[in-house]
Amino acid sequence: MVILSLVNLVFNVIQKKGRAKTNAVLLFLGLIPPIISVLVFIYIRPTIYGVFSGGYTAIGFIFGILIWPIAIMNCDAFQLRQFSVYPKERILTKITKPAFNFLYSIVDKKAWMSEVFSKNIQFMKLVLIKDTELKEDYDYSFMKRSSILARMFGNYIK
């Protein structure tokens, strides 16, 4: 069963695209340390040295447990926080989002660029809609609208 799961993950790494591929890579990378620690501390070390040290397998599981939340928590790493349905992000998601996006840019560059472009388009749509509302509903001048938009979207403009 474990081998079948590993084969399925490798298949997803090779065949899938975008977020699914990045999540499969992260899940696969999260499985490698526990498997290696089990092999070393439960099978190889007792066979060669005669010393059973099963407690040390926790070291590998800790590294695996540190990798898996990155894949699990970042189901939508490109979500704009202010305009989403769920505006509050979890702290762990905020911490792991840069690592997920970095790995995503390495694993599937084309899909990552498409996501970035799509996010930028969505952001510009929001800015233009708000600008049009300020112009038509309140009849503000260009300078007044630009200062309001700068305050509203200043955190998202680099």
**What is the domain tally?**
1
- % residues in beta strands: under 5%
Structural class: mainly alpha
What's the gyration radius in Å? Answer: 23 Å
The helicity comes to over 70%
**What count of helical segments does DSSP give?**
6
Describe the biggest sheet? Answer: none
Mean pLDDT, all residues: 83
Secondary structure tally: strands: 0
Regions with little confidence, pLDDT below 50 for 5+ residues: none
Shape: elongated
Q: SSE order in H/E notation?
A: HHHHHH
The first-to-last residue Cα distance is 48 Å
Characterize this entry briefly.
The protein is mostly helical and about 160 residues long.
Please provide a written account of the structure:
This protein is mostly helical. The protein has one domain (2-156). The chain has helices spanning 2-15, 19-49, 57-73, 91-107, 109-138, 142-153. α2 runs antiparallel to α3 (57-73) and α5 packs across α6. The longest helix has 31 residues, at 19-49. 15% of the residues are buried. The mean pLDDT is 83. Keywords: Membrane, Transmembrane, Transmembrane helix.
